[in-house]
Amino acid sequence: MYNAIKYTAYVLVLIGAINWGLVGLFDFNLVAFLFNDYSVASRIIYSLIGISAIVALVMGGISCRHDQDI
Fold first, then answer.
1. Which of 2, 14, 42, 55 would disulfide-bridge 35, Cβ 3.0–4.6 Å?
2. How many domains are there within the chain?
3. What does the pLDDT look like over 23-68, one tens digit per residue?
4. How far apart, in whole angstroms, are the C-alpha atoms of residue 55 and residue 52?
């Protein structure tokens, strides 16, 4: 369960990073393009990406501390 949550969080963070890269390089927002600008679906996607960044940060920190104990 822990690995599935961690993996999902990292994938969503990667999607968010790719989206911001596209915005920065090409002024193209992939999430807004796919789900309409500021629709409920796009707001849910943005929220999930933000929450997954926090989860990845916390879980990544936990696994790093765990690895140091070994």
1. 42
2. 1
3. 999 999 999 999 988 899 999 999 999 999 999 898 876 555 555 5
4. 5
